[in-house]
Every structure is written in C-alpha cells, then in structure tokens.
Amino acid sequence: xxxxxxxxxxxxxxxxxxxxxxxxxxxxxxxxxxxxxxxxxxxxxxxxxxxxxxxxxxxxxxxxxxxxxxxxxxxxxxxxxxxxxxxxxxxxxxxxxxxxxxxxxxxxxxxxxxxxxxxxxxxxxxxxxxxxxxxxx
Length: 137
What we know:
Blueprint: E1 2-6, H1 12-19, H2 22-26, H3 37-47, E2 51-56, E3 59-67, E4 70-75, H4 84-93, E5 98-104, H5 108-116, E6 120-124, E7 128-134
Antiparallel strand pairs: 1-2, 2-3, 3-4, 5-7, 6-7
C-alpha cells in the first residue's frame, strides 16, 4: 500500500541520498554537483513543511514536494518502474485545481509521468520545460 506522510528533519539522510543519485543530479535544475549534508539541512529546514515522504508498506521510498503550486517528485532507485510515482501524482492532482512542474531537457521518464497524469507543456526555458496541470472537473 502506498501512502504519504509529512517529512521531518529525521528524513534528511534518505532525502539527500535520493537528491545525490546520479540520475537525479543529471536532471536537476539547481545544480549537477553533489550536495553536501550541511547545505541540504539548510535547504530542508526551509522546505520540510512542503515535503511529503512516499511510503510503500510503511517503508519510505521517495518524496513529493508541493510549494507555491509547483510539484516535484523523486523515487528511490530501488523502487523506480513500479508505478509508485504515477499513483502518488494522480492522487495529489485530485486535490489541486492547478499545479506546475519543471522537467529538464532529456528527462524522458519524468516527462512521460507528468503527461500521463494530465500535465501539458506550456513553456520552455534555458534547459527545462514548464508543464501545467489544470483540474477541469
């Protein structure tokens, strides 16, 4: 069973491990460099309230962050390809009228995920697409 729970500072190590995954670094907008724990803790302190841990069978396997209407999702490499992110993103979309996402050029799996969940490309910046979801029910 997949569920969400509010992230805490105690999740910092797993969150950093996922952020520093080579695939995640390759498709990061902010930086491609490995992130240090000290920098991550500063960022997390300011963003923990927007971050939810994704759990499957009570084991944390990813996170989803929703801040100012923008959504970002990460799944630990051991859990990718199992449909977890699709289920979580579809459920989250049901709770919002409008969401946006940024997808770096070449990140085909993320582009497919967001489009499958109803997001449409609305713009392209230097190295990423902006996608928008609008709940029209």
